[in-house]
Design a protein that fits this description.
8% strand, Outer membrane efflux proteins (OEP), 4-stranded antiparallel beta sheet, alpha+beta, 11 helices
């Protein structure tokens, strides 16, 4: 009877130790806790209680940043990126957890059932290896967050670009309509001169004005078609389907956005460029992968206990296994591969810095080019047209010129204003790219956009 009394307590003690060890868990790291807090803060804003938030009310006077916020909160691309990020954060805890315990069963059968031994097995991985794996998954979640940030900023930028085109088309339709009115007025005056005999005896002026008026009407129709297309694009940027009711179209006019100095733009791009920051997060992920690979030489353990229910007295069979990481060539290869991925990620960061510099220089050049064109039109071309119109009006009053030159010259001035609107649109498109290259999210207020809401003048 003594073996019975001694074996059972020892087996129970062994099982208790195994269960206690199996329940051991590594405390979440600071990076994991920060990721969990951040994803919750964003979720409370982006999808409170799993539903869409209250969207901004859109009116004709709604500022463009509110339209951008509407698109960010409503667009499924942003929601998809958020859920991918949320999934990567949720994957950190399983990476640092122990494997699930296993129920086992063993039996010996001859002519009859000789032994019946159910049991339980626990797999153990060293805490250092599990911590390294948790840090790797935390780095993966950081990359996912940067991908989410890019989705937010690109969605906001797409709303702004679509608005810029709509604002330009509204202005172009207004100016082209005024040009057509001026050309029709000039043609009517030329026809009157020809009919009364005040003209030069040819139809050259009438034919030329008729051709220009026909071209203006064709351009008006083209602009109307383009506006229809860009309104669909604007709805899409807001996260609205083609079949959804049309939103209130923005009425904000095209204006020049104030920009910081070029040195400040370069500094912000180097520090906050969203694509560059994602690639740096990928470098951190690769470094964490190297740390995991370096733990490949650490053995893993399995412990368990089985009980023979057929034996009398009850027989307890403890079991234990240990992996033997003896294939050093495989371990070295895994470490070398992880280090190569780290070096490749670092090289991609350098390549992205070069691309960023080239794109930034190109956008700044486009801004300067548009600014020069706008300055020429405002400072030279339009004042000259005003002086020409005043001179023609004076000549008409003195009988030296015909009245048809006045509306014709006004049409030329309106065409120049149309070129100014096109230059301003090109400038603001370049500014949108600059803001996208230098923007970042405020973590505590994500998904709100910060740098893309620069005040306009």
């Amino acid at each position: 009877m003594n073996p019975d009394r001694s074996t059972a307590p020892r087996s129970v003690l062994f099982l208790a130790v195994a269960v206690a060890l199996g329940g051991c868990a590594i405390t979440p790291s600071s990076s994991e806790r920060q990721a969990q807090t951040q994803v919750k803060e964003v979720g409370d804003l982006l999808r409170p209680s799993g539903a869409k938030p209250t969207l901004p009310v859109l009116t004709p006077d709604t500022p463009i940043p509110n339209y951008m916020l509407y698109g960010v909160l409503n667009h499924p691309r942003v929601e998809a990126a958020y859920h991918e990020w949320r999934a990567s954060v949720a994957a950190i805890a399983p990476a640092r957890a122990l494997p699930d315990p296993q129920l086992t069963f063993e039996a010996d059968v001859a002519d009859m059932l000789m032994t019946l031994m159910p049991g339980i097995m626990f797999d153990f991985m060293m805490p250092g290896k599990r911590s390294a794996m948790a840090e790797e998954f935390a780095s993966v979640s950081s990359v996912a967050y940067r991908t989410y940030a890019i989705a937010v900023l690109e969605t906001a930028a797409e709303v702004r670009r679509a608005w810029l085109e709509l604002a330009y088309l509204d202005e172009a339709l207004r100016l082209r309509g005024n040009v057509l009115e001026a050309l029709d007025q000039a043609a009517a005056m030329a026809n009157a001169d020809y009919t009364t005999g005040r003209g030069m005896g040819t139809l050259e002026t009438q034919v030329r004005l008729a051709n220009e008026a026909g071209k203006a009407r064709s351009e008006l129709a083209t602009l109307e078609d383009r506006r229809i297309g860009f309104r669909v694009r604007f709805k899409s940027a807001l996260g609205l389907k083609f079949s959804d009711p049309d939103p209130t179209w923005p009425q904000a006019p095209l204006t020049s956005t104030m920009l910081p100095s070029e040195n400040e733009i370069w500094r912000r791009a180097e520090a906050a460029n969203p694509e560059l920051r994602r690639m740096r997060a990928m470098v951190d992920m690769a470094i964490a992968g190297v740390a995991v690979a370096n733990k490949a030489g650490t053995p893993d353990f399995t412990v368990g206990v089985m009980a023979d229910l057929k034996a009398n007295p009850l027989m307890i069979r403890p079991t234990a296994t240990m992996t033997l990481p003896i294939w050093r060539e495989k371990i070295r290869a895994n470490i070398a591969a992880a280090e190569a991925r780290r070096d490749a990620a670092a090289a991609r960061v350098s390549a992205e810095q070069l691309n960023l510099a080239a794109e930034l220089a190109q956008m700044l050049s486009m801004v300067r080019e548009s600014d020069r064109m706008i300055a020429y039109i405002d400072g030279t071309a339009l004042p000259n047209y005003e002086r020409a119109i005043a001179s023609i009006e004076a000549g008409y009053q003195s009988g030296m010129t015909g009245p048809g030159m006045i509306p014709e010259t006004r049409a030329m001035a309106l065409t120049m204003r149309l070129e100014r609107a096109a230059a301003l649109r090109d400038r603001e498109n370049a500014v949108t790219s600059l803001l996208l290259m230098t923007a970042d999210l405020v973590p505590a207020r994500a998904p709100l956009v910060t740098e893309t809401t620069t005040p306009e003048r």
